[in-house]
Specification:
Layout (H helix, E strand, L loop, with lengths): L12 H14 L11 H8 L3 H13 L3 E4 L3 E4 L3 H16 L5 H23 L5 H17 L3 H18 L3 H9 L1 H12 L4 H17 L3 H25 L4
Antiparallel strand pairs: 1-2
Helix pairs in contact: 1-3, 2-3, 4-8, 5-7, 5-11, 6-7, 6-10, 7-9, 10-11
Length: 243
């Protein structure tokens, strides 16, 4: 383990918390890894046991570490998971106040998903076609029965399956953590006139483009698909009544 530098001026619990976070990051500690004992942390950081205990409680409340009675304190979530969980919480917290978050999300999706669908259409991973086909079949069943909530969930799973096929762990993790935000976005626009029919058609077209290894067509359909969502959100944003 790298050398732990003592704190020089302050014993405030929030700074101790930050120092322990840095210990986890600097030493690349993973879920299940044990932290130094509280007495060791206190000695290394030159702070009292009370500050260490308060810092540990703060980290526990945020889900970064967990205390196992008689065994010590252990890392609970990876740095990436911890960061993304905080990002999701912050973004979801903004939803009741503004549509801008969902507009920003749609713009990010355009950049990411158009690129990825092009790549996987050109070089389609094994089993992807089967996965997407099954998802579309289920989506159409839910659309026929007008179960929009279930349709939206399957819609998100369709896009996550495309992201997963990229093999990029960072992007995959981001989409997993933003599941709730994606559902919110689809709920906002899915009830508009013609949305369900357009969505069904475009998902089928994406599947056909991937099946025919046509990366350009797959990318263009995805771009049109997300742009439609973006345009609807921007229209809703313009119609908002100022407080």
């Amino acid at each position: 383990m790298n050398k732990i530098e003592p704190l020089k001026k302050t014993k405030l619990s929030d700074e101790v918390t930050k120092a322990i976070e840095n210990i986890i990051i600097d030493n690349d500690l993973q879920p299940g890894d044990k932290l130094p004992s509280q007495s060791e942390l206190g000695k290394s950081l030159n702070v009292g046991s009370r500050s260490i205990r308060e810092a540990i409680r703060s980290l526990e409340s945020r889900g970064l570490v967990e205390t196992k009675q008689g065994k010590g304190v252990f890392v609970k979530n990876s740095n990436m998971d911890f960061f993304l969980e905080m990002l999701k919480t912050n973004l979801v917290f903004q939803l009741p106040k503004e549509l801008k978050t969902l507009i920003d999300l749609a713009n990010i999706r355009k950049m990411i998903e158009t690129s990825i669908i092009y790549s996987i259409a050109v070089n389609t991973p094994p089993e992807l076609m089967s996965t997407l086909t099954k998802l579309i079949e289920k989506m159409e069943e839910k659309a026929d029965s007008n179960d929009i909530e279930a349709y939206n969930i399957l819609d998100v799973e369709f896009h996550k399956a495309i992201i997963k096929a990229s093999g990029n762990d960072i992007i995959i993790s981001i989409y997993n953590h933003l599941f709730e935000l994606l559902i919110k976005s689809f709920q906002k626009t899915g009830g508009m006139k013609g949305s369900k029919e357009t969505s069904r058609r475009e998902h089928r077209e994406m599947l056909e483009a991937i099946e025919s290894s046509n990366g350009v067509e797959a990318r263009d359909i995805m771009n049109r698909h997300i742009s439609s969502t973006l345009n609807k959100l921007e229209k809703m944003k313009k119609q908002e009544i100022p407080n």
